Amino acid sequence: MRSLSFRFPRLVSTLVVLGGCERQEKPPAPTRSEPAPVKASTPAPATPSRSTTEQELRERLRCEALLGLSGLLAGQKEFFGEKDAWTPDVTRLPTPAACADGSRVPAPDATWLAGCHFRYAVSVAGSTPDDSTFSVRAVGVGGLAEGFTYTLTHGYSDRKLVRVWPSELVLEECHGVRRPEGTPLPAPLCEGASNLKALFTAEKAYFGEKDRFSESAAVVGFLPEPCLDGSRVPVPDDTWIAGCHFIYRAEVSGTAPEQTFRLTARGMSGPVVEQKLTLDSQYTWSPADPGCAP
């Protein structure tokens, strides 16, 4: 069976103006002078500018669509891992988050999934595991969301993995932004922490079967998720395996079955460059556990 791995800022910005007072000397007596001629001036044309609030609301909408699409991508990959097929049945996929008050946009019929400001339609093309794809279309409904449409496509074409991700939806621009239901997105460091936990679990499971640990991510079955557009950061050598912004390595010490391991996640791009996390076989973190939710 094939198994595939895998900011909201305040709506109104505050402008603080700092001012000061200085003691003024007594001004000198005025002197007579001829008034300078006054030239007529043409007022600068008024150019409409979008309010910060509207810009930030649009950013929140883009992040909502990103979360909805990435959730459905994860759901399809889980389904494919069990069935070797993609599903057009939206009831088999995770439901996008509602608004904080529980409301959702209307769905035209049962083939759509409704979220807070977007609804989602799913379609599948092809019939064989190695030559089939699915697409998810996110359509904004009402208010500022009206007219926003994003489409994700993922799957296989002639046995080659393909993914087309909307270029306007960038995860790094959403860190600190709250989800539609009000909870914040995890910090960028949590990508590395979550994958270290997954690698830790994979090593322990492998040891349970083989009475030894392994430095090979492929052997223990660990493959971190790429970026949403399918890209991965480069690795310095083949002892590392790449995810989206981090690379990972396992180092094993001792002779089986008396072995220990040390796992490393190193940030390579974006806001986590030069950050490093380690986790050993006794579940000791360095630095301390970032406290990311599972």
Mean pLDDT: 83
Give me the Rg, rounded.
27 Å
Count of strand segments:
10
Q: How do the strands line up in the largest sheet?
A: 1-2-3-4-5
Helix share bin: 10-25%
Taken in chain order, the helices and strands follow as HEEEEEHHEEEEE
Q: Give the overall silhouette.
A: globular
The largest β sheet comes out as: 5 strands, antiparallel
Count of alpha and pi helical runs = 3
Low-confidence regions: 1-50
Q: From the helix content, strand content and strand pairing, which structural class follows?
A: alpha+beta
Explain how this protein is built.
It is built from three helices and ten strands; from the N terminus they run αβββββααβββββ. The protein is an alpha+beta fold and 294 residues long. A hairpin with a 3-residue loop joins strand 6 and strand 7. The strands form two sheets. It has a five-stranded antiparallel sheet, with helices on one face. It has a five-stranded antiparallel sheet with strand order 6-7-8-9-10, with helices on one face. The protein is 20% helix and 23% strand.
What are the SSEs and their pairings?
Blueprint: H1 52-83, E1 112-114, E2 118-128, E3 131-140, E4 149-157, E5 160-164, H2 189-210, H3 217-220, E6 241-242, E7 246-255, E8 258-267, E9 276-280, E10 285-286
Antiparallel strand pairs: 1-2, 2-3, 3-4, 4-5, 6-7, 7-8, 8-9, 9-10
